Amino acid sequence: MAEQSEMTKERWLQRRSEDPFWRKAKEMGYPSRAAFKLLEIQKRWRIIKPGDKVLDLGAAPGGMTAVASEIVGDDGVVVAVDVNPLQITRPNIVYVKGDVLGTRLMHELQNVLKGEFFDVVVSDLSPHHSGDYGLLVEQQLELLEAVWTICRKFLRRGGTVVLKAFEHPSLRRFERKFGRGFRKFERYVPHSSKKGSSEIFLLGFGYRGVREFIRVEPASAS
Ligand SMILES: C[S@@+](CC[C@H](N)C(=O)[O-])C[C@H]1O[C@@H](n2cnc3c(N)ncnc32)[C@H](O)[C@@H]1O
Q: What distance in Å separates the CA atoms of residue 159 and residue 116, rounded to the nearest whole number?
């Protein structure tokens, strides 16, 4: 059994070293290949602007955080949230260790923002893939619902959202709800997404900002 898992790890490392985006990320000093997905989206829609406040959910190890940090520059900020640590530190990056499914994160974001709002929310969150696709989709939908709640609380009117999801018929219901919140809605599969992956990015432009009251529960030990 131990031998098999060793083999699996070896194969995984071998495949990773053959991945051109992984190699390019290493060359360019990006902590992960995910950087190129955000670069593609940025090139096509220019979602992030210098000076923006960006919320990056599921940020570790920090490929997308690095890209967003380069674009927002010295006048902007990237608030990077993950349960795991980032492999990058820069003056315009604020790392918040947190679980998007917990209530404590809402308080932390409130403290960081001090009454202001994010211009852009990027979510590359994904649960650990156990091999059960149905379970992955279900857990991803739970993460998407949590992100949507965070957006409705902290995204400015007119703001932009980029969300990673996984293709599945059960995604449609979320998409309809999400899409209604924006002036324009797009679906996009980056060329840098891994071959055979079913990931898809949902993009909302021009948040309508129908701000309902979302109560931030008192911080618990979650
Ligand atoms: C595909 S990775 C993100 C890659 C990253 N965006 C980058 O550019 O390097 C997905 C991330 O989601 C995080 N994650 C999963 N569930 C989470 C949760 N409930 N709260 C916070 N982070 C979570 C994982 O720890 C993992 O780092």
A: 13
Q: Ligand 1 center to residue 151 CA distance, Å? A: 17
pLDDT in tens, 121-136: 999 999 988 888 989 9
Q: What is the CATH number of domain 31-207?
A: 3.40.50.150
Q: How far is the CA of 1 from the centre of ligand 1 (A)?
A: 28
CA pair distance 101, 145, nearest whole angstrom: 9
- Phi then psi for residue 24, to 5 deg, are -65, -40
Q: What is the pLDDT of residue 210?
A: 67
Q: Look at residues 126, 202, 204, 115 and name the one whose alpha carbon lies nearest to residue 154.
A: 115
- Chain centroid, CA 157 distance in Å: 19
pLDDT digits (tens, 9 = 90+) for 177-205: 999 999 999 999 999 888 888 999 999 99
d(CA 45, CA 181): 18
